[in-house]
Amino acid sequence: MHVDRNEFHPLEVDRIREDFPIFAGDSPIAYLDSAASSQTARCVLEAMDGYYESYRSNIHRGIYHISEEATAAYEDARQKIARFISARRASQVVFTRNTTESINLVAHSWGNANIGRDDEILLTVMEHHSNLVPWQLLAERTGATLRFIEVTDEGLLQLDDLDQLLTERTKLVAITHVSNVLGTINPVWEITAAAHSVGATVLIDAAQSVPHLPVDAQALDCDFLAFSGHKMCGPTGVGVLYGKRELLEEMPPFLGGGSMIRAVQRERSTYADVPARFEAGTPAIAEAIGLGHAVDYLEKIGLDAVHAHEQQIIDYAHQKLSEIDGITIYGPKPRMKAGVITFNLEGIHPHDLAGVLDTTGVAVRAGHHCAQPLMQHYGVIATARASFYLYNTMEDVDRLYDGALKAQNLLARRQG
Amino acid sequence: MHVDRNEFHPLEVDRIREDFPIFAGDSPIAYLDSAASSQTARCVLEAMDGYYESYRSNIHRGIYHISEEATAAYEDARQKIARFISARRASQVVFTRNTTESINLVAHSWGNANIGRDDEILLTVMEHHSNLVPWQLLAERTGATLRFIEVTDEGLLQLDDLDQLLTERTKLVAITHVSNVLGTINPVWEITAAAHSVGATVLIDAAQSVPHLPVDAQALDCDFLAFSGHKMCGPTGVGVLYGKRELLEEMPPFLGGGSMIRAVQRERSTYADVPARFEAGTPAIAEAIGLGHAVDYLEKIGLDAVHAHEQQIIDYAHQKLSEIDGITIYGPKPRMKAGVITFNLEGIHPHDLAGVLDTTGVAVRAGHHCAQPLMQHYGVIATARASFYLYNTMEDVDRLYDGALKAQNLLARRQG
Amino acid sequence: MNIYEEDILDHYENPSNYGTLEKPDISYEEDNPLCGDQIRMDLEVEDGVIKDVRFSGHGCTISQAAASMLTEEVKGQALDDVKKLSKDDILEMLGIPLGPVRLKCGLLALKVLKAGAYGIKGWPGEEDDEEE
Amino acid sequence: MNIYEEDILDHYENPSNYGTLEKPDISYEEDNPLCGDQIRMDLEVEDGVIKDVRFSGHGCTISQAAASMLTEEVKGQALDDVKKLSKDDILEMLGIPLGPVRLKCGLLALKVLKAGAYGIKGWPGEEDDEEE
Ligand SMILES: Cc1ncc(COP(=O)(O)O)c(C=O)c1O
Ligand SMILES: Cc1ncc(COP(=O)(O)O)c(C=O)c1O
C-alpha cells in the first residue's frame, strides 16, 4: 500500500520498530495484542540490565554507594512518572504491581474506611474485571450497593441518566478511561465533575489511556488514577496508583511490613508518610526504574503522535475489515475511540479465528477480555480483538485482513 | 590468605563470581548485604531478556504462539519452585511481589476468615517487620491478641515456656526460619509440631532460609511458607507464597480482578481455583520466569554447598572481628546460624561505620534492619550487619575487618 | 504443527456420534466459562461397557473434534478403561501439540466423559495429573 | 567525595554551640526513628533576630556536624531568613554530596530549626521542596 507519509505516518514507525527487539528478523510477528501487554522498549531493558549489572542492591536504607544509586534511580522514576501524568508531587505516585493492585489498594485502604452499608458505588458495564471485582468484594464487606452506567448499542456510555444515577448516596465513581474491548474513550472529565458535584470520589482506570493518550491527572481532577507499566513499553511487575495528596495522606495502610513504618513496637506501629506507607517490603526496583525509562521514551515520541498514529491505523482497519462478509465490529466509530478493534466472524469461534491468524504470524486476542458483563450486554461469550500501538503498521492490518479471509475459507465451509 | 581449598572452598567461588556481572572489573565491591537483596545471576537476566526479546506477551488467555510460550514458561517456573521447596503440587505455589505481600495475603485472606476476638497469634521478638506489622493490623481488625516468644541474650528463641504460650487460643504461629539480624536458625520443625498439637496454623517466614539452606516444605509440615526472589539470585518484583492445598483451596480471594475469576456477573463473581485465585491481574511474568532460572542455578550448585560455604565464612568472620577492640557481636555462635554477622563498635554510630566501609568498597547495612522490637530487646537503635552469600570470599571478610579498623582510627578519636 | 489439520477439520465438520441418546445411563455436561465451549456426553452402559455414546454441544474446532474422536475411541470400551484415559491420549488422537489455552478446549470432552464415568463428584479431578 | 572530610570530623569532635540555653525563647527537638539521631535546638530571639543558639543531642557525624555548622550560620540572622534556608544551603555548608539516607541525617538539624522558627505546626514541611 502506498501512502502519503505525512498523512499516514506522523510517527517514523520504521525507526520505532528498531527499538523493539521482537521485530528484528525476517518475518516479524504482526503483534496486535498490545492492549493485553505491549512490547518493551530496548532502552527499558537496558536500564534494567544496567541496574542488575552495576548497582544491584536494595533501596532506602543503604548507606553504601550502589544502594544510594539504586534509591536515587527508583525515586527518579517516581518523579518522571509524576511529571508524565502531570501530578503535582512525586509523592502522589505509589508503585504497585499493576492496575489491578492499584485498584485493590484503594478498595481496601480508602474503601474500608469510607464506604458503608447505605453507600453506592457507581461503575460502568464496560469495566475490566479489575475495576469491577474489587468493588464487588468491597460491597460484600461493607454492604454497599453497586450501580452501573449502561452502554449503548454503539458502545458509548449511556450518560443521559447520569443525573439519576449520581445521588448523595454515591460515594465512589470508578470508571475506565478507555475500554479495553471497545476502545471507547469515555468523557471522564465530565463524569468526574458531575461526580464531584454530589461529593463522590472518582477513580479512573487508566490502564488503556495512559499508554496511548496524553493524560493530565490534575486537569482530569480525578481522585485516583491507576495504570500498568507492562502496557506502556515498560516491564511486567510494576504499576502505578496516583492519588490526590489529601486522600492518600488520610488513608490507613494496606499491606504491612518493612519500609512502610515510622516506628514499630511489639503491639503497634506508626506509619511512614506517603508514598512509602503504601509500599511495604522490597519493591519492584528494577521494574520501577524500567518504567521511568519507558516514560522517557514515550515522552520523547509524544503521546499526541502516538494517538494520531493509532487513529490512522484504526481508521484503515475499520475500512478494511468492514469489507469482510459476516463480520460484526463492536464499539464506536474510529474517531471516537483508541486503537482497538473487536469483532466476530459469523460461524467462526474466535478461538479458531485467533488460531488460524496465528498460523500466519498475526497475534490477536480471543475471549471475553476480562469484561464478561460487557460480553453479556452484547449477548456474546467471546470476541476477537486486535489492538494497536506505536510500532504497528498498515501492513499489520493487511495481514489481519488476509488471515481473517483465510480463516473463513478454512472454517466457514459449513455456512454457505 | 592461603587456605586449603577443600577445607575452605566447598564452592568454586571464582567460577561462581563470574556468574554475577557486578564482580567483573578490577576493583569489585565487597558486597556484604545479600540479606537485604542478593546479586542476580547472569542466567536469570538472560532468561528475562529472552522473554522480552523473543516472546514478550501476556499469559493465560493468548492463543498465539508467543503467548503460549510465555504461559508455559511462567507455569514452568511455578513447577521448578514447587520442586525446589518440595511442594507436592505446583498449584501450591502462588506468585506474589515479595515475602511481605505473601504474608499479607495470608493475613487478609486466611486471617480475616479464621481469626477472632478471643484468638491469639504467636510471634517471636526477632521477627522482621514484614512478619509482625501484618499481624498487628489483623489484630486491630479482629480484636485478636499478639503474643511473643522471647529471645535469649545469646540470640536464640526462649522455648522453655513454649508450652505456656501455646494454648487452645493460639490460632496462628508466625515465625521466621532464619533471623535477618542475628542469623539464628530457629527450630521451626519442632515449633510447628508443637503448634499443630494445639491445633494452630503455622506460617514460616522463609525469606532468609530458602536462599541459603535446603528447605523442604513438606518435611517442615508448615501450613504456609513465604519468601522473596530478590534474595535468592533472582530478580526484584517476585515472591512466593506456598500453602497447604486444603488451606489454599478454602481461602477466599484477596485481590480481585482479571485472571482470578471463573465467571463474572455485574453483582457477583465466582473465583478460579488456586493458584490463579490469588494472582489477580497481569503477574510479574518476566520476574517469575527469572526466578525459575534462579532456582535452577541454586539447585545446580546445591543448597548444602551454599550453606557450608557460608558456614566457613561466618566462622572466619567471627574469629577475625572478635579481635577488634570495643566490638559487640549480636546473636549466637557461628555454628548455630546462617551467614549473617551483626555488630557495633563502641563509640561509632553504625551509619558512620557503614559510611567509612563504603569508602573502602565494602557494602554493609546499618540501621534497625526492619526489626525494631529486636533492637529494643538489645537496647540499641541500630547496628551494622554484614551478610554473606555464595559469591563472597574470605577476602571480603578481610576487607570488612580492615575497614572497621579504619573507621575506628578515623572516628573513635574521642574515645582513647 | 498447523492446528487446522484436515483430520481435525473433518471431525469438526462431520462429527461422529453427534446427538443425544433417548435414555442414557449416564449423561453429563459442562462448559468452559472462558470461551463458552460446551459439551454433553450421553452413554449407554451395559455390564460396565459403553454400548453407545453421543455428544452434543458447541465450541471451537478443537473442543468439537476432540469430542468426536473421543466418542469413536470409547465406544465398546469398559468404563474402567475410560477412567484411565489421560491428556496424552487426547493429544495423540488429535495428533497435534496444543498450547495451554487450547489444551483446555481439547480436554473438555474427556473431562465431561470422566466426570460421567466416575459419577461426577467421585472424580478426583483433572488437576491430579500434576501430582508428582 | 569522601564524606569523612576533616572539616566534618572537626565539627563532630568539637561541635560549636553545643549545649542548652537556660531560658530559650524557642526550643524544639526531634529524632530520626530510623537511626536514632536526635537534635534539640534552643534559640534566644530578640526582635526577630537569633541572639544565641545551642544544639544538643546525639547521632552520626553528619547529623551532628550539620547541626554544629548550622548554629554558626544562623547566629545573628533574622528568623525570617532562617525560614528560607534550604537543603542546598546545608549541602553547601557540609561541602559534600549526600546519598538519600545520609541526607536525612544532614537535614535533621535544619528540620528542627525550621520547625522551631515556624512554631512547629505552622511549618509547611520539608517535603515541600519537591513541589514543582
Ligand atoms: C526475615 C525476613 N522477612 C521478611 C523480609 C521481607 O522481604 P521483602 O522485603 O522481600 O518482602 C525480609 C527481608 O528483608 C527478611 O529478612
Ligand atoms: C481497562 C483495563 N483495566 C485494568 C486492566 C488490568 O491491568 P493489569 O492486568 O495490568 O492489572 C486492564 C488490562 O487488561 C485493562 O485493559
Can you walk me through this structure?
The complex is a heterotetramer, with two copies of chain A (416 residues) and two copies of chain C (132 residues). By secondary structure, chain A is an alpha/beta fold. In chain A, helix 13 packs across helix 15. Chain A is 39% helix and 16% strand. Chain A has helices spanning 5-8, 13-17, 42-54, 65-84, 99-114, 133-142, 162-165, 188-197, 217-220, 245-250, 285-301, 303-321, 350-359, 372-378, 394-411, and strands at 30-31, 93-96, 120-124, 145-149, 170-176, 201-205, 224-228, 239-243, 261-264, 269-271, 327-330, 340-345, 362-363, 365-367, 383-387. In chain A, strands 2-8-7-6-5-3-4 form a seven-stranded mixed beta sheet, sandwiched between helices. Chain A is globular and about 70 Å long. By secondary structure, chain C is α+β, with helices and mostly antiparallel strands. Chain C has a single domain (6-117), classed as Sufe protein. Chain: A (Alpha-Beta Complex), CATH 3.90.1010.10. Chain C is 41% helix and 19% strand. Chain C contains five helices and three strands; from the N terminus they run αβββαααα. Mean pLDDT of chain C is 85; it is low at 127-132. Classes of the chains: A alpha/beta (416), C alpha+beta (132). Chains in contact: A-B, A-C, A-D, B-C, B-D. The interface between A and B is large, with 89 and 88 residues. The structure holds pyridoxal-5'-phosphate (2 copies). One pyridoxal-5'-phosphate sits between chains B (35, 98-100, 128, 130-131, 176, 180, 205, 207-208, 228, 239, 370) and A (258, 281-282).
